[in-house]
Amino acid sequence: xxxxxxxxxxxxxxxxxxxxxxxxxxxxxxxxxxxxxxxxxxxxxxxxxxxxxxxxxxxxxxxxxxx
Length: 67
Prior knowledge:
The chain is globular. The longest helix is centred in the last third of the chain and has 20 residues, at 47-66. By secondary structure, the chain is an all-alpha fold. Helix content is 49%, strand content 0%. The chain has a domain at 40-67.
């Protein structure tokens, strides 16, 4: 399963982590595209915040593949 598929199918309460945890120089995970702040805040986020974070991850991933 690709990261894009995982993010699109993620249940909001479920972390989009795919186990490929490595941050780039901008503190964005190369695996799930979450920022370090999003990763740290995940356990205390509301469902809506998790949905928004997952959507932001998808936008980052799509932007990266479009370039």
